[in-house]
Amino acid sequence: MIKYLVAIMIFISCFSISIISSAGDQNYLHSELDYEFQVPTGSNTPTIYPLETKKKVRFVDDKYMREVTYVIERESQIEQYKCSNCHLDGKNKKIKGQKPPHDHIVLKHGDAGQFTCFDCHNENKRDVLKNNFSKDVSFNQSASLCYQCHSSQFKDWSNGAHGKRIGKWVGERVIYNCTQCHNPHDPGFQKRMPLAVPKMRGVTK
Amino acid sequence: MSMKSVIQSIFNKEEKISKSDAPLNLKTLTGVDGVPSGATDFDQEKLTSKGMSRRSFLGFMGATALGAGAVASAGPAIKSDDKELVLLKMKEYFQKNYRILSEDERKVIIERLERKAKLADDLTLNIKSTEARPDTQYGYALNLSKCRGYGDCVVGCREENDLPEDGSMDYIRVLEMDKGTFTMKNKSIGYVEEVPKDEKYYLPMQCMHCANPPCVPVCPVGATWKEKDGIVVVDYNWCVGCRYCEAACPYEARRFNFKTPSVPKEKINQDQHYLGNRKRMKGVMEKCHFCVHRTREGRQPACQEACPTGARVFGNLLDPKSDIRWILENKTVFRLKEDLNTQPQFYYYVD
User: Which of B266, B282, B314, B317 to mutate to test the interface with A (most CBs of A within 10 A)?
Assistant: First the structure.
């Protein structure tokens, strides 16, 4: 009896050798170093940056927080940084044959006409921002500028209920800064197509 | 010659045959070397020397070889790799429940799985058997004010756990619900328009990893259980596929493999856990396992990492300094179907 059983099992296992076909599409979650989200155009949702390739900097105002907090360094992600390459001594360098580089920016922050550029940007030192007390704020530390108005969001962000923690859930606390997710000139999230269209049994539309 | 003596002589003959030949060794017969031996259930003695003579055993092996050759239709003989694979698969049938195995036994079955993947699919896997961290109860908090139904978490989970791309087995489902209501009447899952819609809110659902899970006691074979850190897991090798747990779960969090999962080789996640995202078979249950291969090493689950709005928070409920504890203490928090006393560890909160 046992020999028949074993013979049947061997047959089953021979049949069950699965044939795996190949298809080319990159896998973004598996490689630690270079994954990116394919976000449809017209969206301002952020791409996901791996922790290894981005530097972290300590958040300057983490004395208001429960534990030591790091944020992702921002300056290297700004395309035209450093700003003082063009904005020198209160004058704007113009390159012939090139369109003004900031023309695409439309300020949709707050009510129409409520803000101007120099409410946040430092007119004299273009490489940094400035807060309401005309103190310099680094581009890396944008949260300490934003919380002047958005205090309730800052409270949630500093305690983990707003924003996103990256890396590990335990140990060193590294979180996204405000500008990692929100475009400061247009902070709202845009509508876009869902990435996944699930197909489930027994689901009626 | 009487009937009795005839029978006796036949028995004596058989005895002679079995005595003259030394007990057979399956390894030498099949030409397999380097198979992880040790604490496996496969009993060579039973198969060879006891209920079977040498002749009949050889005959049955020959028939098997013929059958396998016909299936593969590759050539007249089987390669030694194929023989080893068949043997490994056979040993897997006699494996014990993962919970009662010692550490060495677990090592053996995991080595076998890795070798099997190498032979069958040419994959170099890293299957872990990481134990639960001490003083840890995993919890999940999801901000319903922030979720916009983009579905990135669904795709992240799919990639991480080698789920089919058509979405038929997704662990996470994002329900599109009417604002201001909490009924399942007008829910929609297969939405394809731009999100978020103005009149809708989005409610992602997955396994709640209940403190009092109704799916665990109904299992007739004990193939699913709650780990010490609160994760409800399935031993896919021990599962018989009766689907009682699927019926018992009030959140519809469990998925059944109606067919053999087939994922392209390039897409298979090589970072695996025995209780997590290793290869599932046809006819077994599977479910969200809080990315056990990631979270037990301190990393975030894949859905949290994929979420573009930061609506998902993962953490340790026993750590009073953790983010999730602050949320539970300071936010408006609720759980789904609390009246069933399942005590889910998956919390929803609003700003």
Answer: B266
Q: Which residues pair with B177 in a beta bridge?
A: B201
Q: Which residue of A has its CA nearest to B269?
A: A30
Which of A15, A30, A168 lies closest to B300 in CB terms? A168
Contacts of B67 in chain A (CB under 8 A): 10-11, 14
Structure tokens at A184: 């400061």
For B305, the closest chain A residue by CA position comes to: A166
Backbone angles phi, psi at B255, to 5 degrees: -125, 145
The answer to whether B308 contacts A181, with C-beta atoms less than 8 Å apart, is: yes
Tell me if B151 and A2 make a contact (CB, 8 A cut-off): no
| CB–CB contacts below 8 A, A to B | 213
Q: What is the ipTM of this complex?
A: 0.72
Query: Given an 8 Å threshold on Cβ–Cβ distance, is B267 in contact with A194?
Result: no
* Nearest-by-Cβ selection for B310 from A11, A15, A162: A162
Could you give the CA distance from residue B119 to residue A106 in angstroms, rounded to a whole number? 58
Task: Go through A185-202 and write b for each residue having 16 or more CB atoms within 10 A of its CB, e for each that does not.
Answer: bebebeebbbbbebeeee
**Higher per-residue confidence, A43 vs A193:** A193
The region of weakest confidence among A101-110, A127-136, B199-208, B247-256 is: A101-110
Q: Could you report the per-residue pLDDT of B111-159, keeping only the tens digit for each?
A: 999 999 999 889 999 999 999 999 999 999 999 999 999 888 898 898 8
pLDDT value of position A79: 79
Cβ distance B167 to A196 less than 8 Å, yes or no, reads yes
**CA distance linking residue B68 with residue A56, whole number of Å:** 57
Q: Which domains does chain B have, with CATH numbers?
A: 15-124 (no CATH), 138-350 (3.30.70.20)
Task: State the virtual CA torsion across A166, B207, A200, B221 in degrees, nearest 10.
Answer: 130
Q: With DSSP H G I counted as helix, E B as strand and the rest as coil, what are the percentages for chain B, rounded to 5?
A: 35, 15, 50
Coil, helix or strand at residue B255? strand
Is the model's pLDDT at A96 over the cut of 60?
Answer: yes
Question: Within 13 Å and on the Cβ side, how many CA atoms surround B349?
Answer: 26
Contact status, residue B242 vs residue B290, Cβ threshold 8 Å? no
What is the C-alpha to C-alpha distance for residues B143 and B327, in angstroms, rounded to an integer?
Answer: 10
Interchain contact, B52 vs A2, CB within 8 Å: yes
> Rounded distance, CA A56 to CA B87, Å?
51
For the stretch A70-92, pLDDT in tens is 998 888 888 778 888 888 877 77
Q: Test B260 with A162 for CB contact under 8 angstroms.
A: no
Token pair in block for residue B279: 């290869």
Residue of A45, A170, A193 to mutate, interface with B, max B Cβ within 10 Å: A170
